[in-house]
Amino acid sequence: MIKHDVVVIGGGLAGMRAAVEAAEGGADVAIVSKMHPVRSHSGAAQGGINAALGNREDDSPKAHTFDTVKGSDYLGDQDAVAAMCEDAPGQIIWLEHRGCIFSRLPDGRIAQRPFGGAGSPRTCYSADVTGLVILHTLWEQLERFGVKVYEEYFCTALCVEDGIGTGVVAYNMRNGALELITAKATIFATGGAGRMYAKTTNGYASTADGFGIAYKAGIPLMDMEFMQFHPTTLKENGVLMTEGARGEGAYLLNALGERFMFKYAPNKGELASRDVVSRAEWTEILEGRGVDGCVLLDMRHLGREKILERLPQIRELALDATGKDAINEPIPILPGAHYTMGGIETDKWGATRIPGVYAAGECACVSVHGANRLGGNSLLETIVFGARSAKHAVNYIKSVGEVRPSERTLKAQQERVSGLLGRTSGTRSPILRRAMNATMSENTFIFRNEAGLRKAVDELSAVRKEFDASAYVMDKSTTFNTDLVTTLETDFLIDAALALAAGSLARTESRGAQARTDYPERDDANWLKHTLAWRNEQGPPRLDYSRAVTIADFAPEVRSY
Amino acid sequence: MAKITLDIFRFDEAVDVVPHRDAVVVDIPETTTVLDALETAKADVDGSISFRRSCRSAICGSCSMNINGITGLACKTPCNTVMDETGAIKIDPTPNFQPMKDLVVHMDPFWDKYARLKPYLQPSDSDSAHERERRVSPDDMKKLVDVANCVMCATCYALCPVVSVDPAFAGPAAIAYAYRFIEDVRDGQRKERIAQISEDYLWLCAHCYACSYCPKHVDPNDRIIDVKRAAIKDRVLMNERGPRHALVVTKWIKKVGMLHETELIAGTIGRFNVRGLLKVAPLGLRMAYKGKMPPMFLKPIPKVDEVRTIFDALEVPVS
Question: Which A residues in the span 441-470 are in contact with B, Cβ-Cβ below 8 Å?
Fold first, then answer.
């Protein structure tokens, strides 16, 4: 049996930041990750990380808080948002001191670029590979502190004994063994759930693992209906074209060659918040002003030098996928599933309702993003809440004696896996995923309505039932069985998708990323509250609205850009 | 749409003694990437085909594999650029690694090369002396960003012939990562880092440029040259054969316009290193016996000035 004080599930930015904080706090900490940490999808984040450093213009954490609250369409909890924005400058300096390679201003300070929905240039960056450089910096710190990494271990379940978290069960992909990993504190940092959709910026690994594990263990998922569709993704493969492109001055054009964003956001244009831009693009396309089902991202006027210096990665990604060179041609783009604002319900220290269980980063819902996340705030959230959850956990473990290993959960997982592997026929996970993806794309995309959402709930419930009755794994090997892992991931994705559809159906208003054509207005009188979805074995989740939104300095106002 | 045959290396270390191959036919647009072709094969034909993948946008570095004899990222390789006239693509695990399952290999030796670098910033002053960021000029940072694009996919390591004959060689990726710290003006361990990478056989690199095929344009081949230059500039472990060899080669080419083989041996081994020289003496005697003894004295070639002009134009001043 493996045993540590603190176990972090996931080796991306939030997970590694948590692990480094716990290690520096003197705890015996380990990371459990289904892939090597530097493979994590945090590395695909391009544009930057927000902090009110004020290196280019006067700025303050308070201004950052306001922009974030407004961006969230007032569903963000203002105490948590303020905590994040106040921690931000210190965390950026921490990263810089640890060697992070940020782009610089001529005087040597960290460069900052404008981003959507922000009142001043607040986004620190490293060309268009910001996620990658931070990922490397944190991995270097793991090496420095000798943090143990259980690499290519796929976590399948959370152990809860007498109401407290006591560790996890994980599947060792190298030899097929399920192992019990005992921990006084467990921090989930498993990233997003973009793979609920077919067209997503997310990698193959963003499969709702933490969502599903916590949910099955009795922790509610919060605000799952708020899924961010990023305005600029490639039609061919869903790959992200950073918001940094528009931050550097790129235009969005329709088939008539118009910069159409000013019709929808007279002040901010292309730099309105993402929900606004995605809806505007989709409206242009639906009304017949698209180009082959896309709009155009035009960077030509930025010039070769600026594109090669600040946006080299996306230029190459577009070139590889479309054959078009952004230096000479506009790139066809459309909105695609990008970021799960919802997630495992936590407080502003990353703590869930189960003592000893934490969540940080995209898998968590604190909520700092509310109904819509601002660009540059996701990397920030990983760093801030990775550190905060570990700080809390390190304190918490001092009050906990030995935790008892829970063979019960291990046995249940062994039965689950041997059940899946024992089946000789049934429905393979790619089939189940296609059914899920189809209904998600059709009914839970940018514009939603009751009939479509009802259909989504029904169809996802059917997929859930089929999974439980007949999910079939073709590969029976004990070595690197990715067929089995993909099947377990599909289980988690279906849970998350069902919570998303059910939450969206119940919320009879339009707010942030949730746009209901049958309820087009924001309804603060009835809906200034979070959605809590509790797992229900028998069907769609039980929804509960007992958690109100925390309002502090900023009363809800009409939101325009 | 095109019928594409994926000819895949199959092996499971838990049960197989020898690998075999499977041919899987998929019907996909021929511009599909090799990675997506494999995904289709796994989803629609054989769920047991195993490979690593995540981002499918050349940033996670997971899907390096050998495609028709050339190692690269499967997500960055469209099928129509590699398939033969019959529509077949041969896919193997990356060379220089031990296969685990199908296209999945044991990566640990590769990660170990990084661990030896102590790959984290070690500034000469304390962080608490800086309330804000350490200042770094845009140009100093730019040098590092170009290397920071490395996604650790190990393509260069797999392509490296020196790694294949001497697994102790750090390999191109780790040397490029060492460069990232050696050239970081914030770091205080420049000399120690150069010494460490020299001990990890920096000078074994034969500059064959196999690693210039880097999917992320990090060009580890050029970074290796940069690190060697740094070693000479800072005079780190200069008495080893690597730097001595490099210096004596350039010295004589500048002087006479061609390689001076006798001086090369003496210069690399050391004129007063009697034991070293005795070791190579039998070789010298055999060469003399066959009439292939290089001349002891060389006259400069005609127009040697032009060679020197090239040096003057290219040489980075060594302090």
Answer: none
pLDDT, residue A361, reads 98
Task: Output A53-56 pairs: Cβ under 8 A, ≥24 positions apart.
Answer: A53/A89, A53/A92, A53/A109, A53/A110, A53/A112, A53/A122, A53/A124, A54/A120, A55/A105, A55/A109, A55/A110, A55/A111, A55/A112, A56/A105, A56/A111, A56/A112, A56/A120, A56/A121
pLDDT in tens, B6-48: 999 999 999 999 999 999 999 999 999 999 999 999 999 999 9
Q: Does B252 touch chain A (CB under 8 A)?
A: no
B286 and B221 belong to one structural domain: no
The answer on B253 and B213 residing in a single domain is: no
In a domain, B41, yes or no: yes
A4 phi and psi angles, rounded to 5 deg: -145, 165
Crossing angle for the helix pair A13-24 and A130-145, nearest 10 degrees?
A: 30
- Report pLDDT for B316: 66
CB contact under 8 A, B47 and A474: yes
Predicted pLDDT of residue B319: 45
Q: What backbone phi and psi angles, to 5 degrees, belong to B118?
A: 50, 65
Write down the ipTM of this complex: 0.95
Amino acid at residue number A267: N
- How far is it, in rounded angstroms, from Cα A237 to Cα A356? 39
Query: Do the Cβ atoms of A279 and A295 come closer than 8 Å?
Result: no
Position A196 pLDDT exceeds 70: yes
Neighbours of B149 (CB within 10 A): 20
Q: Which domain holds residue B40?
A: 2-105
Assign residue B88 the CATH number of its domain.
Answer: 3.10.20.30
Residue B238: inside a domain, yes or no?
A: no
Candidates A126, A127, A475; nearest CB to B48:
A475
C-alpha span between A277 and A261 (Å, rounded): 7
Query: What is the tally of structural domains in chain A?
Result: 2
Listed in sequence order, the residues at least 6 apart from A333 whose beta carbon sits closer than 8 Å to its beta carbon are A231, A232, A233, A234, A235, A241, A294, A295, A296, A297
Whether residue A523 contacts residue A250, with contact meaning beta carbons closer than 8 Å, is answered with no
Chain B, window 97-126: residues with a beta carbon less than 8 angstroms from a chain A beta carbon = 100-102, 104, 107, 111, 114-115, 118-121, 123
| Dist. CA A6–CA A387, nearest whole Å | 13
**Per the domain annotation, does A353 fall within a domain?**
no
Instruction: Give every CB contact of residue A150 below 8 A, 6+ residues apart in sequence.
Output: A2, A30, A31, A32, A33, A170, A172, A181
Residues spanned by the domain of A517: 407-526
Does residue B258 form part of some domain? Answer: yes
Task: Supply A319's token pair.
Answer: 């070139």
Average pLDDT over residues A148-159: 98
Q: Which residues of chain B have pLDDT under 70?
A: 316-319
- Closest C-alpha to B121, from A5, A97, A488: A97
Both structure tokens of A143: 């090496």
Do residues A280 and A263 make contact, with C-beta atoms less than 8 angstroms apart?
yes
Indicate if B226 and B252 belong to the same structural domain: no
**Residue A172 touches chain B, beta carbons under 8 Å:** no
Other C-beta atoms lying within 10 Å of the C-beta of residue B18: 5
Tell me which of A198-207, A439-448, B195-204, B285-294 is least confident. B285-294
Q: Do B181 and B265 lie in a common domain?
A: no
* CA A46 – CA B210 distance, rounded (Å): 29
Q: Does B312 touch chain A (CB under 8 A)?
A: no
The answer to whether residue B319 sits within a structural domain is no
Task: Give yes or no for a contact between A446 and A494, defined as CB atoms under 8 angstroms apart.
Answer: no
Q: Any bridge partners for residue A253, and if so which?
A: A296
Provide the number of structural domains found in chain B: 3
Residues 6+ positions from A494 with CB-CB distance below 8 Å:
A432, A436, A460, A463, A464, A467
Q: Helices in A399-481 by DSSP H: which ranges?
A: 407-422, 429-443, 450-470
Q: Which of residues 50-69 of B touch A (CB under 8 A)?
A: 50-62
Strand partners, A50: A123
> B206, B233, B260: which is the final residue of a domain?
B233
